[in-house]
């Protein structure tokens, strides 16, 4: 009895870990809570001392102001369409490139892979001007195509897929498929893709959230309010002389809700994919 009771008691190490994780979770969630609080208050509450930490009753009223200023749902749909297309293309290109770098031998393979990785250390602001001129020369200014084309080649995605394919796809399985007469693309489609589903879910979350939150390039390319993404549309709410923080943060709050829902859906897919992969 005493031995069993002792085994059921959590150790001090586990208690410390749980307390630390609880504190870290609270600190991570506090900015979202504060954003919600400010979305329910007047603009004056933004600079109040002591700061306001309890919700008000102006959430609907502030959001109605947003709807009067911008096409909120149109911009939300544009962002969702942009992020979905970019995510699908990045997953396809990155998985193909990762498969090639992991399982094929060709001249300058390591040099090309290192070159791709080195592009990750270049600040995106440095390429803003030449990229803008290239998009302008191609006639893609103020179009979603001009915005999304910049995100298609993702060095982080290629690196993640290359590492995952190297560790998870046996060389013997690929050789057996080649002996059976499978082409390289059929091997990728029938063998590699089912194995790398967990990496797909992980990279999909990273890419979707990154493109959703990106502002500088979208703001540079898009001019027509009808083509605005949600980030650019929310930025247009700011006024130099009179900034309504309650209205702006109300728009930011409702623009964050779909992203959280999508993140949770992808997270469930990620967990289920790991379970399926372990069974296989």
UniProtKB/TrEMBL annotation:
The keyword Transmembrane helix applies. Keywords: Cell membrane, Membrane, Transmembrane, Transmembrane helix, Transport. The chain crosses the membrane at residues 15-36, 75-99, 111-133, 139-160, 191-212, 245-266. It is found in: Cell membrane. GO terms for cellular component: plasma membrane. The keyword Membrane applies. Pfam families: BPD_transp_1. Its main location: membrane. One of its GO terms (biological process) is transmembrane transport. This is Sugar ABC transporter permease. It comes from the Bacteria. It comes from Planococcus halocryophilus. It is a multi-pass membrane protein. Residues 76-266 form the ABC transmembrane type-1 domain. Belongs to the binding-protein-dependent transport system permease family.
